[in-house]
Write a structure and sequence with these properties.
Radius of gyration: 19 Å
Largest sheet: 7 strands, mixed
Strand content: 25-35%
Number of strands: 13
Shape: globular
Distance between the termini: 40 Å
Bound molecules: adenosine monophosphate
Helix content: 25-40%
């Protein structure tokens, strides 16, 4: 296997915190997360990938970044090989229905109402760089830095597998960077064996499709999970109460992982079809 490098991008913007305007005349400047991206690439892909990431940072609907950091790093070891999660889209027409479907799927995986509500409440605030680690029963947050969260990083996909995936997604009109990157990310998160499910709602005001990912159901897209124009969003990784936090974070952030095995893609299915096919 050819040597791979980790390429990461982070774009931020400095803004005046609204609270400090009221309390004191001194303005407090905070850094807002605008955009981030990462992947494993061959040396020959460095320039095109860095350009693509910079363009993304410069044209993000969340605003104009004033700081863009690109990190290019040798991963120094052979990546662990994993399989993609199978993809399907759940029929959903409104945000209320979207939250209900997400809640329903997560509860069927043993995640409590309390933990789910915690995740959605966090999504209202937005502006995290990474995901929150939430315990499945009590809804406790475990990540050491709650403002930053945990980032799934050092992840990529084999070129031939990506080609096949693009072809299959094309049939359903969802062959986009957003879908492919999120699917690779979710596949790494679930491959940890420590995350029961991931809930994602993009904080991009123009992108209203979220997803629930899990070993049992695969990657289930949920269209219209939020209203267009809303900057709500975030990611939650649900783990067992006794989860080994350090081990999970080391895997998600440090372990290089490459998708080398494909999975099937389906079109739009109903919530009942999903449950029906797993209860047989
Ligand atoms: P996005 O899908 O890029 O709009 O991201 C939505 C939210 O997911 C972000 O605001 C972050 O909180 C979180 N997020 C983005 N990228 C990652 C990542 N690589 N690992 C963990 N969480 C992430």
């Amino acid at each position: 296997m050819e040597e791979l490098l980790s390429i990461r991008m982070r774009a931020t913007k400095k803004v005046q915190s609204p609270k400090s305007k009221v309390k004191s005349k001194k303005s407090k400047i905070t850094e807002v997360h605008i955009s981030g991206a990462e992947g494993l690439y061959r040396r020959s892909e460095i320039l095109t990938t860095a350009k693509r990431y910079i363009e993304r940072a410069l044209n993000h609907p969340k605003g104009r970044a004033d700081r863009i950091v690109i990190t290019i790093e040798d991963i120094g070891r052979k990546p662990q090989e994993i399989q993609l999660l199978p993809v399907a889209t759940v029929r959903c027409d409104t945000p209320a229905e979207g939250e209900e479907i997400a809640g329903f799927l997560l509860q069927s995986l043993g995640i409590s109402k309390r933990a789910i509500e915690r995740a959605f409440a966090l999504f209202k605030c937005g502006n995290m760089r990474g995901a929150s680690l939430i315990t499945a029963k009590q809804g406790r947050r475990l990540e050491p830095d709650p403002e930053r969260g945990v980032r799934a990083s050092r992840l990529g996909i084999d070129t031939a597998i990506l080609k096949g995936l693009s072809f299959r997604l094309q049939r359903f009109g969802i062959n986009t960077e957003i879908v492919k990157e999120a699917l690779i990310l979710a596949s790494k998160v679930i491959s940890s064996g420590q995350v029961i499910a991931e809930l994602c709602m993009s904080d991009d005001p123009d992108y209203t499709t979220g997803y629930v990912a899990s070993r049992r159901y695969g990657y289930l897209r949920i269209p219209h999970i939020k209203h267009k124009g809303s900057s709500r969003g975030g990611r939650a990784f649900f783990v067992n109460e006794g989860a080994q936090v350090k081990r999970i974070i080391t895997y998600l952030e440090q372990m290089p992982v490459l998708v080398t095995k494909a999975a099937h893609c389906r079109g739009i299915i109903s919530k009942d079809e999903i449950l029906g096919s797993y209860n047989k």
